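Lab notebook: predicted structure, single chain.

Context: the supervisor wants predicted structures on file for every construct in the current expression panel, including those that have not yet been purified. This is the next one on the list. No modifications to the sequence; it matches the entry in the shared construct table.
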Amino acid sequence: MAVLLHRLGHSAYRNRKLVLGIWLLVLAALITCVGVFSGKLDDRFSVPGTESQRALDSLSKTLPEASGAGAQIVFTAPTGHQVTEAPYAATIARTVADAAKAPQVSEVVGPGASGAVSADGTTAIVQVQYPVESTQVRASSVDAIEDAAEAAEKDGLKTSVGGSVYGSKGVHVGPSEIIGVAVALLVLVVTFGSLLAAGMALLPALIGVAVGLAGLLALTPAVSVSSTAVTLALMLGLAVGIDYVLFILSRHRQQLARGADPKESIALATGTAGSAVVFAGTTVIIALAALSVIGIPFLTTMGLGAAGAVLVAVLAAITLVPAVAGFAGSRLTPRPASRAARRAADAEGSTGHTGMGTRWTKLVIAKPLLTVLAVAGVLVTLALPAMDMRLALPDNGSAPHASSERKAYDTISDTFGPGFNGPLLVLAETKGGTSATSAEAGAKVAQKLQTLRNVKAVLPPQPTGDPTQSVITVLPASGPDSVRTGQLVRDIRKAAPDIKDATGASVAVTGTTAVNIDVSNRLSDSLLPFVAIVVGLSLLLLMIVFRSLVIPVKAAVGFLLSVGASLGLVVAVFQWGWLADVLDVPHSGPVVSFLPIILIGVLFGLAMDYEVFLVSGMREEWAHTGRARQSVIDGARHSVRVVTAAALIMFTVFAGFFPLDDSLIKPIAFALAVGVAIDAFAVRMTLVPAVLALAGRGTWWLPAWLDTILPDLDVEGAGLQKAQAHAQASATESKEPQSVS
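Prediction complete. Output recorded below exactly as produced.
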């Protein structure tokens, strides 16, 4: 691999104009495709093969209003008045008429017809139905509903609009993300000691991000792409893109500081650091692509979309960086007396100066057992809240407090009960029956459902376009993200055989709440197998790279500690509500159901990234000196500063998405940011050196029979360096004068 990448670096350097032109041409073509052919983003959560999804698909044909999106206009009368008073009733009736004129609306049901008036008469709800899903509802239609509600406030009523038409806002680039990139640039300037080098590091990363994002958006006419998938691709593409460029360019500048030729230096950096970049990127891609085996379409799209962004970032690092370095030439060489030059000399151990990385490593391994126990104890403590983790998909209860949908959600929950925000739809079907027999069976089913625990109310059966079907709305006594609501869904399904025997109708639970519960259950069931796959993969890959048993086991345990601590912090903040006000978290409740799997997939790749860059230097020192403890110190000197900068950049990029008022993106950004910080600083830079110091020479032991069957990927570029040393020696010999016999 290293030899191939070395040749690629040479070629990209020589043909820099062509390489840059190809990237810009591809970017322009993709942007054109997005502008001409781009479709709409699809934020549907579906689980093919489940009972709820099959029933929902059936209702989409026989009763589109039941399977489509809905909006709720909530009216609250002034203090001391009731919504049933004549002036307010007239205002509500006018609002119903105005809402019915909104685009795409199929039906508007006033409180008089539905009975949605609170017991004290202070609150009423108007139901607005659409024949299409929320992703297909145009913004103009929602605006028309909001305008109709706002007009009612002129007559003294307080209004808010909620419902399933509101969802994730998706991709959004605003001030916080721009600040994140600016901080990343600042870190690069400090790391390189050069504004030119920092700018050249950022340029290939930004081009790669733009290509990856445009490519994903260009697929929307043919593939269902969610807004969350686009945001995740942006987050990951930006974070790993900058990091991968940083690794290669920092190696290049170190070599330039030692007097290397720019062309040969960037080729060597691409062959050595680039090999580690390819390995690290491949692990991220494999872990993200593995999300597709879970069988949930939106998660598959998220995984493959993010994997595509990482792939583009890798390609940009190993082709664009050499090309851009070709334009800069020797101008990237640190000035002889500059701080960057001194750092390069320190990294080679040619000065007496002791860098921060060396001092930290010596401190860590001074008492390695104490370090291991302290770090492991802290991380296990942080992970304890994860044992209480509950998973669910967010709803309007997770929206910002000031938003209209959150106000509507809270008002309905307080006045009518939390279950009114998450009704269950029960599809009752009779074989070969008529509308009359179906209605009779539906009425009997409703009576049976009323006897189940946690059922607050059961509405009368509603006929569909199929005479054998009827739909019964069940209002739970608990909210849509409550454990009790999930238990009610299971109770209805468990009672289905008895209901069929008593009524002659088969029943299936569906609706948005049931679908979300099924999604969360599928993800919960997939979590442990996915962890097993990822950990097994890490053991195998690191065993191949480092020819060791201790390193992969230590890396896997460290990875699990990082994931556990990150999930524990997520539970403490987002589920328990610790520091929720300080961090501006609008709602305490279950963790986003796909967050753990996304965190595991992403953090796995990043952990392997830092592991390779840190430990490869230590292994190189061990191979040269055979001194186990000293090799840990000397190896860390090469890479701690670069890994620190990479972790800070990634943390900043992820944290830049945290301020978004999006119930899906906010916890994911938080989890990835703290996960990177914990894994880089607590595990890789602290726990790893301590464990290697404890293991001593045993760190690098591998049974001979296993060494012979494992392939040699040469990620560290040892083969390339040997070949170059041999070539230089041959060249030197050819220049020496031949003796005359």
